[in-house]
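Task 17 of the worksheet. Students: predict the tertiary structure of the chain below and write it out as structure tokens. Keep your answer in the requested format; marks are given for formatting as well as content.
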Amino acid sequence: MIKKIKNIFIEGAIPPLFIADSIAKHATKKDIGAHSIFLGQIREDVVDGKTVKAIEYSAYEAMALEKMQEIREELFSKYELSCMHVHHSLGVVNAGEICLFVFTSSKHRNIAMEACNEIVERVKAELQIWGKEIFNDRSHQWKINS
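Model answer:
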């Protein structure tokens, strides 16, 4: 059986209502005892005296989606998850807006939390997604994940 590769990408910031709706949809799933949610938000960092106003994300989408599918399958094998949702922004996301939404569900909290944390770390380390920091003076530099 070939599993359909899920598109994790959203153009622009991830809207708070999208996040709330995703959470609300799980109220009917009575076998879930815990959810773990990670929200990545753009910081208004100051780098060399310049303020980050936004990050512009780009990706090698096909490769990133294929890798995300591998991660998804590995984590469903490793953890007893009920659900896993990952959404990442493409394009410009302003300071204060959400660029990454990871949502895991399980019967037990430790499983949901461990899986969520692992997904976040692996997305940042393994997916072909790049961020260009855009400063208040309109200059830019490529962001290094930390």
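Marker's comment: DSSP finds three helices and eight strands in the chain. The longest helix spans residues 61-78.
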